[in-house]
């Protein structure tokens, strides 16, 4: 029997079990998307070539900037159903941007202007991962957007630590097939991959800037988590490529920031098992066996029986946890409540259920200017219609190096209770870049408490942990996450202990 296939089929069972525990009957989670891709990559059905090498700008020959006249005004959202009654200090917009006219492919965006100084604050694009997960369902409604959904699935409350205190924030559902984003050419759902996602995202951005021309020369930053560890650098790389080609700053890209991000497969996987071991989730024997017998190098196509057995044991030991936040409660009900549950400072583990209900309400879709073509499937936090994934390089480190060489600010953060792409993985990935340390490891402070730890490297790369946060950092530690993004955007180092 092919040894790698037993690892794969075991993960399949695992995914089923995880979904069973964490979500309800409907919908996939951000976890599901990533696990599916890891499985495909193990089975070698995904192209792995490195991004700059296999990236062929010819796919972008057809960049079209269409007229966006009058569309911004039409996209203005008057009010979201269930929004708190107070008058808002900011404007919100939502709508579609066509990225490919002949295929009929359009991406959905939700945009919240800054709560103050919107004319001078930067533009920040947020991307979630998966692949296949929605930046609206996670980023906007559970992490860093101005509203969160109550347990009744129809009313909203304010997130006091929304990132639009620091920037004008754009959420994009990408690629087509995610959330409300769609294609009239259904075969597009089978031909997604990193490369096509980067080019559609780039075409989206150019057209969106045409619709909102006041942001054209604004400082621009890209942020994201999880599999967006691929999307964010790949879009940034595309922007740099076209800026260079035109010898002009078509998009005024200043920096990128990625959290609990897929960066480098080999160190990502090794770091995951080391995290399990150092957080008392698996035995020392299992950990030793994994380190001794598993080959995490990108070229490995099979694993030994000893490796598979140990990996299986690790799966069994961890499957009932929310591996995305090893200390968090899990959701065990898919029911809405008639009356909203009281808000606690800890995010409700069943928030996926509430957001799913909210996004599928016809009045919400109408207010958001979403689903105007009456799609034949529900809105899901993670797409159920995207099939397969064509290309996914094993590393994005060459892209991060490219940004450093081009003076683009790079921050990498990590919620330190995530077990899926944990802090160990991210530390190993950064070590693999072999950068010189500029400011050594030290705690960073917020409100006289340790917000996390940070180390700065030469070339303007900052690594920062967020203490007590899981995979979705702004969901679990909203105040620390806002402080982090404010420091990133202003280019200020995180405050040292000497400032206590
Ligand atoms: C539009 O998308 C289709 C795939 O659906 C692709 O074949 C075509 O090349 C794309 N056109 C442009 C201009 O990018
Ligand atoms: C997709 O098809 C619908 C129905 O024909 C049409 O209204 C819509 O504009 C098309 N979408 C795009 C992006 O062309
Ligand atoms: C690029 O633009 C700058 C001025 O903006 C000019 O000095 C330089 O010669 C240009 N380079 C090329 C290769 O066209
Ligand atoms: C993996 O294979 C590629 C091409 O076959 C080779 O260039 C590379 O050095 C190999 N990497 C490792 C870690 O063996
Ligand atoms: C779009 O609207 C149709 C008809 O109301 C509905 O059945 C479908 O679930 C909606 N899909 C999305 C993605 O919002």
TrEMBL record:
Pfam families: Peptidase_S10. Its EC number is 3.4.16.-. One of its GO terms (biological process) is proteolysis. InterPro entries: AB_hydrolase_fold, Peptidase_S10, Ser_caboxypep_his_AS, Ser_caboxypep_ser_AS. GO terms for cellular component: extracellular region; vacuole. It comes from the Eukaryota. One of its GO terms (molecular function) is serine-type carboxypeptidase activity. Keywords: Carboxypeptidase, Disulfide bond, Glycoprotein, Hydrolase, Protease, Secreted, Signal. It is found in: Secreted. It is an enzyme of class 3 (hydrolase). Probable carboxypeptidase. Belongs to the peptidase S10 family. This is Carboxypeptidase.
